[in-house]
Every structure is written in C-alpha cells, then in structure tokens.
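Study this protein:
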Amino acid sequence: MTTEQSELSTAPGASPITDGPTAGEPTTEEMVRANQANWDARTPVHVASEFYGLDGSRTAEDWFAPFEWTDLGELAGRDVLHLQCHLGTETAAFAERGARTVGLDFSAAAVAQARRLADEGGRSVEFVRSDVHRAVEALGERRFDVIYTGKGALCYLPDLTAWAGIVSALLRPGGTLYLVEFHPLLDSLGPTPGPDRQQLQLRHDYLGGRGPLRSDTPSTYTDGPPVQGATTSYEWRHGLGEVISAVIGAGLTVELVRETELLPWKRFDAMVPSENGWWRLPPSEPIIPLLYALRAVKA
C-alpha cells in the first residue's frame, strides 16, 4: 500500500508542527530529499510490520475498496503505472488482474523491497526508482493507459500543477488517471481526550497556502520499532478544489469524483469495522468524507 498518509497529528513524540519555509529554512528540493531519506529509513520498519502483512496475512486486494475496481474497469492487457508505489503492495493487484504494470517510487530502499516481493510472489511487475517530478525522464518514451496514485501520496508533492502536467505527459490519448486519496478533511481532524473517549475536532489546515508542515519523529504509521536515521519529513496541504483544478488545468477531463466515509485502516480509536473489512466512524458520529476518488481522462 502507498500509505504515505499524514502522521503529523497521530505520531506520538512528534515535534510541534511548523510552517515553512522562512529565512534559513531548507529549499523545496532539500525538503523533497529529506522526505526521500525518511522513506528509506521507514522501509525496513514497514517491511517487518503486521500492518503491511507481507508474511501473507494480507493480500493486495485488501488495500482496495470495491468501488475502485468498478471505476477502473477491465485492466487485462493494459499498461498501468502506479506512481509513488512504496512497497508495491497495491501495484501487485494490477499485475494479478492481467495488466502490464510499472511501479515508481523515489525510495531506493522501497523499490528494492518491492522488486524482491514481486519476484518472491512470481509477479511480473517492473519497478523504477525515480522522484515523481522526474518520472517522464525516468520512463523515457513510455506512455500508459492508466495511471494510479494516492492513499497518502499527494501530501508529499509541493506543486500539484507540475504533478498534473507530468501525469498528462505520461498518459496516452484516451488514458485514465485514477486517484484515490485521503480526504483533506481527514488530515484536518485530530483526536482530543473527551470524558468517555477521544473526540474529533478540527485541529489542522484543510487548505494549503501556509507552506509545508515539518515533522520530526521516529514514529511511523505502522507497528514496529522506531525509525532509525532520517526522521524529518515535510508535507504540503492540498484542498479538493486545488486537486481538481490542477487536473483540469493539465488538459484532463474529470469524469467522476467520489467521497466516502471508509478508510483501509483504523485511523481513530472510535472507528468500527465496515462490511468489506475497512473502517468507518460509528453510527453515533456524523458521516464525513475520509477518502475520495477522482477519475479523469486525457483527450
């Protein structure tokens, strides 16, 4: 799974969130490099975690909501690119459905593990190490029928206009971008202690515009030991309007936008299992969007 979801409000021991950049702060390129080092450091923890279930306790299908396969349609024989694929846990599902599949990620450690897991599982998946900002150069003249990304990917991108242009350049005419991402409202919510249990309140920005958020913590979103080495990371907030506008601005036609109350993991203590094994807030809580999906097509 590409679960690069925000940890700024959930990681114990995290440093206070700070806005940036200001005088003396790192450049955007330096922040991206810091994120790359941070994901290299997280990878061994994630590989060994129960969360990812790489011992066989979880399958690639576990990371997908049923509506995703409906939205994507038939994949057999199509060229699929998974941007920011991390360990390739979701990427594998496309190969299992008959797609010619490529996963791309900026972490050398993650790509090495993704290749190992694909080989051990007998899956024909190619993994390319590249920053998504240089994906066009890394993939050469190759173009794709479907580009899939999300579930914690966009928060690591400083400029969605540039990202959407890269996606458009990598798609064939008639090709599809399918984005499934944590809703910006989710990252705005934070739990606070209540008299009986945790209560959710708006604690963080929904919209971008105040610069990247810096976190310095040895914790990651999975179980397991603390991250060793590079513990600093940076995230950028992107509201739903910014995402949709960037995609349209790149010349893609938005066909579908979904919002759902489901999450593939238990983000908050109060969450209860849903019918498909994912998680939702209990009936006593308001129904709010926690995840969204967007499908767009290149003319």
User: Anything to note?
Assistant: The chain is about 25% helix and 25% strand. The CA atoms of residues 34 and 162 lie 20 Å apart.
